[in-house]
Amino acid sequence: MTVRTRVAPSPTGDPHVGTAYMALFCLCLARHQGGQFILRIEDTDAVRSSAESEQNILGALNWLGLNWDEGPDVGGPHAPYRQSERLDIYREHVDRLLEAGHAFHCFCTPQRLDDMRREQMARGETGRYDGHCLALTPEEVASRLEAGEPSTVRMKVPEAGVCTVRDELRGDIEIDYGQVDMQVLLKTDGNPTYHLAVVVDDHLMEITHIVRGEEWINSAPKHQLLYEYFDWEMPVLIHMPLLRNPDKSKLSKRKNPTSIWFYERMGFMPEAVVNYLGMLGWSMPDGEEKFSLQRMIEQFSTERITLGSPVFDVEKLKWLNGRWIREELDDRQLAERLVHWAFNQDNLDRVIPLVKERLEVFSEFGPQLGFLVDGLPSVAPADFENKRLDQAEIVRVLQFVSWSLDSHGDWRPEPINQLFADLAGKLDMKIRDILAPVFVAISGSNVAPPLFESMALLGPDMCRARVRHAINVLGGVSKKQAKRLEKEYAGLAS
Ligand code: GLU
Questions:
Q1: CA of 8 to the centre of ligand 1 (A)
Q2: Atom of ligand 1 nearest to the CA of 7
Q3: Which of 27, 267, 337, 415 could form a disulfide with 37 if both were Cys (CB 3.0 to 4.6 A apart)?
Q4: Per-residue pLDDT averaged across 427-445, rounded?
């Protein structure tokens, strides 16, 4: 049997380190046994998915050197590898389930489903579809479909009993069917949900081992039922432990930079990032912490995956990166890496038009460029001192800026300008009072190109990280303050 694994990111945001983590383990599992590693784009959520995010994910995984054998860009025998291009396949499979009586049409309105859920919650029950439309006769279903009434297709789930799913790392897991929802498989718009698409694609793409985050364990019974309904063989399941923030909460961009590009911007070596991800949840037989992707592939076995809660600790990653720099790069190689990282043509082409205006001698270029090749700048509270705002007000403004940037997508100067103008309007403040601390947070000094252009050049990940860093430098925000500010911020948005 050829081992085939896949990573299946949804292109709905920044390229997340969690995606790289899954990709790494998929790749090692497959390549260790001479198998194939596939990249599939799960973009059935048309509203949240974007081509830009897909490009970013592919680019970031490529930067890390986690290359796939089949995927939307390289093609392969099971193309297309983008779910939005496979809609007919899913519809055909839903028809098969409907014909065999494993699925049914549901005409319940969102209003009815809301009421149902609220009542179930009030009774202390798990929110679960109550089977209302199972009672419809085939004639009723046919005539309502004929009349064009909006409907979804749901899968049937046994009324009672226990479902046992096997996870390679955890053994048998028992989940009561009473906890398993009659999952929607096809949405009102005719698009599949994740649960249908993932099962159909994993089967058709001949995936033998599913490696994914442990947050999907509860979905495994639904998937297993679908495999049974289709009479297909279920792949081996490997649910990886989730990466955590140092406080053990699920890794989140509010507490840790989660975008792979942040680590590229900070000047980490991709080899070290991959090594670090490998260390989180897996160990070399000899216990050595520093290892290459090639060594990990050679030595890989799922038996040495640990089920703890791996903490993504940027300080530890820095330490490891330092070892990579010193032990793996000679002086010439380090010089080449630095030139490629900081003074590459792309960076220069973008920054030169901004600083040329202000340049009298070449020696002024270094300070002007400083903001672009810096990491988290060394700023102190005194740098933010301001005649109009005291420190608490500055923290409040920066916190609102940070949240606004979290949900902002268009990183060109003009939309960034607009974001600040909007925020100033909502806070009834002058825009320059908001921009003053942001300038210090982003530029780290008084010498830098104009703010919006600088932000556009730095990109979302580094900008967000610098604003968060500035908040920490200014003493941070306590949980209590955060709650209060969050409330205020929600009020601004509405
Ligand atoms: N699209 C899912 C995600 O983004 C994939 C989960 C899976 O691997 O089955 O997490």
A1: 5
A2: 8
A3: 27
A4: 94
Domains in the chain (CATH in brackets) are 4-71+243-326 (3.40.50.620), 86-234 (3.90.800.10), 381-493 (1.10.10.350)
∠49-53-55 over CA atoms, to 5°? 125
User: Angle at Cα 71 formed by Cα 274 and Cα 166, nearest 5°?
Assistant: 70
| 386 confidence band (pLDDT: 50, 70, 90) | confident
Closest CA to 90 of 133, 44, 45: 44
Pocket mutation for ligand 1, best pick of 22, 41, 42 (most atoms within 8 Å of C-beta): 42
State how far the Cα of 299 lies from the Cα of 163, in Å rounded to an integer.
Answer: 34
CA 85 – CA 69 distance, rounded (Å): 19
- How much distance in Å is there from the Cα of 215 to the middle of ligand 1? 10
**Residues 6 or more apart from 204 whose CB is under 8 A from it?**
78, 89
Burial class (CB in 10 A: 0-12, 13-18, 19+), 206: middle
> Residue 126 has what pLDDT?
84
CA distances from 344 to 321, 340, 347, 348 (A): 21, 5, 6, 6
